[in-house]
Design brief:
Strand content of chain B: 5-15%
Structural class of chain B: mainly alpha
CATH topology of one domain in chain B: Inhibitor Of Apoptosis Protein (2mihbC-IAP-1), Chain A
Largest sheet of chain B: 3 strands, antiparallel
Oligomer: heterodimer
Largest interface: A-B, 70 and 72 residues
GO molecular function (chain B): metal ion binding
GO biological process, one term (chain B): actomyosin contractile ring assembly
CATH superfamily of one domain in chain B: Inhibitor Of Apoptosis Protein (2mihbC-IAP-1), Chain A
Order of helices and strands of chain B: HHHEEEHHH
Structural class of chain A: mainly alpha
Family (chain B): Belongs to the IAP family.
Order of helices and strands of chain A: HHHHHHHHEHEEEEHH
Number of strands of chain B: 3
Strand order of the largest sheet of chain A: 2-3
Shape of chain A: elongated
Organism (chain B): Drosophila melanogaster
Number of helices of chain B: 6
Strand content of chain A: 5-15%
Radius of gyration of chain B: 19 Å
Radius of gyration of chain A: 37 Å
Subcellular location (chain B): Chromosome, Centromere; Cytoplasm, Cytoskeleton, Spindle; Nucleus
Distance between the termini of chain A: 60 Å
Number of helices of chain A: 11
Amino acid sequence: MPRTKIPKNSKRNREVANREEKVRLYELKMDSRLISIDSLETKFLSAVDHQVKTLLGQVQKELANLKMPEVLRLFEELDRFSDFKASDQTQLLASMSMSGSAIEGHAPSATGSRNDEEDSSIGASGGSILAAHTGSLLRSTKAMRTPGPLHSARARRARRSRSACGDLNILHSAKPPSISSSSSSSRNSRSKLRTPMASRAKAFSADRTPLKQKQMRSGSPTTPPMAFLRYPKPGEVALSKYGSPMVAQVMPDKFANVNIPIRNGVLSLRPKKLDADEVESNLLENLDEDTLNQIKTLHENLQMIVNKASQAVFK
Amino acid sequence: MESPVVNEVAASLGGEKLEVFRKLNLLEQHRVESYKSWPFPETASCSISKMAEAGFYWTGTKRENDTATCFVCGKTLDGWEPEDDPWKEHVKHAPQCEFAKLSCPERNLTVSQFLEILGTVVKGSIEKTCKAFKSSFVRENEKRLDEFTRNQK
């Protein structure tokens, strides 16, 4: 009667373990996805910094010191001949092509045609450089808004951004509210209160240990690759788990050795130099494929132990 | 009476080539045009032109039409009074804002200063987009996790 309960418990525990393993894998994938999003954000931010520095470096000093109203008027003169020198025009055109090559994520054809028009215009002025770079910066921002996995969801949101609240989505404030005076006599403009979003706690690294142990155990279900075994002392009785007591008469060796089971017995290797003549082909023919694979695994394990022991001795 | 320079700037802004700035409200004229409903006249200290000069564009609604947001730092302010000075309120509530620190209207900005602000605004937009996407991504996947856990039990 009590034996019938054991299989049910083991089955239930197995299901719980499977579920927990799936949840653990899910959390690992979520963490990796969030990390990739962060790296993408960093990449775009550094691209913006690079483009701004390039633009500041390429723009001439006279143009850099101009006031904005004058520059905005220059925008209107994009189709006219510029007052800049020919060498300056060549330099500006080169910077345009450089900015074009620096952009990642190519723009759609509609925007491409606009770029072609700007490139084809003779005597491009600084205003066109500014417009091209600004367009590229904004296109970089736009490219970020269509990530692969949730493209359909983002497409729906893109439609909502056309409404009056579209600007809110772009530059909505997420900073903590500043302190405003509480006196009622002189009422000051106050900032809207924003609720900070609670950050999700990440899983501890200790939770990942059982997964590793399980992977190790799946390789050898009965015995781990390395185990400290003790030979029975002289006169000590070794009890068997499956029947009557067993008297151990084999004396432990003082030297390292390897016992390889073969079909009709056991091949025992000693730490002596082994010549090719001593290895009889008849014995090796009795080795089966599984035993050969086990020997290869043992060889790798022994090599690892030798390497680490050598390092320890040298230190 | 507007000065001829302002009229010329307004005319040039009508072209399509400057529309790339409108999305992020980088230019003062675009910020002026964003005010659909503002409860104060042009004679007030916080008129539309003065608000736009200080970096604010309209983010209000029919019910709360006195809400405005800075295009650089994203600070949103409401509860304006006719005697409020937009620049002072901006510095008071957002002292870390680069545009408020500059305290320089667009007509006195140089191209270099404008480009610095441009970079700041674009990077802010990128960070905002990433934050919104990550939060929605996590929220959707947590919903799926809850459904999975509920179905398994």
